[in-house]
Amino acid sequence: VQLQASGGGLVQAGDSLRLSCAVSGHMFSIGSMAWFRQAPGKERESVARILWATGSTSYADSVKGRFTISRENAKNTVYMQMNSLKPEDTAVYYCSVSSRPIGPEDYWGHGTQVTVSS
Fold this sequence. Notes:
By secondary structure, the chain is mainly beta. It has no helices and eleven strands.
C-alpha cells in the first residue's frame, strides 16, 4: 500500500493550498483517512479526519473553519483545502489511512512541506 501526497508549497499568510493524497496498492477496506502535521521541534499532531463510509469529519481546534477535508471514494483519494493560512500552519503534512474509523493509522504518506510566510 502506498500513499502519494502532493500539493504543498510556499505561500503567504492568508493564501490557500489544496493537499491531495491517493492510496494505491492492495488495500483493505478503508475506515478513515486523516491528515497530520509536524512542525520543526514539535510532535506530530492530528489535523483532520474523515470517515470513509459516511464522510463525517473532525478537525483540530486550530484549523476549524479554515481547513476542509474531503474524499473521493472511487479514486481512494483524500483532499484538504486549507484557507486563510497562517505562519503557524507551517509544517510537513502527512496523510494516513486506517482500517478503523478513528485509527490507529495503518499506513502513512511521505509528507509534503507547507510553508506560510508572514
